[in-house]
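New to this. Help decode both lines:
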Amino acid sequence: MKLLILSLLASGAMSAAVGEAGLKVKRSTACNCDLFFGRDRVTSNYVATSPGLITVNAFYATSDNRNHLLVHPGYCRVTWDRGNNPTDCSTWKQYAGPNGGPCPRSIQQKTNFHCGGID
């Protein structure tokens, strides 16, 4: 009986510790997002985490044979859907673009992307 009580107390303490330390969702004030097209990318920085759709300016960069990025002058446009939980950058979706500016038409399609939060 004592062993059962000790086991229950220990598991409850471990659950509380994990719940406090490991399960919190990070809330960001802004996000950086990269769209990847092979070795090329379109980057939008410091995108606000308010709800709804947002269209932002983004940089288009190509990679040379030595994996150095060349950032092209001018901006592309990308529209992000920040969804129901806009402060969690990992839940964002690419809604439209990239288009305009230096972005070639061949990359105006949905592709792999990553959004990460900024504190």
Observations:
- The beta strands are 30-37, 40-48, 53-63, 69-71, 76-81, 93-99, 112-118.
- The chain has one domain: 30-118.
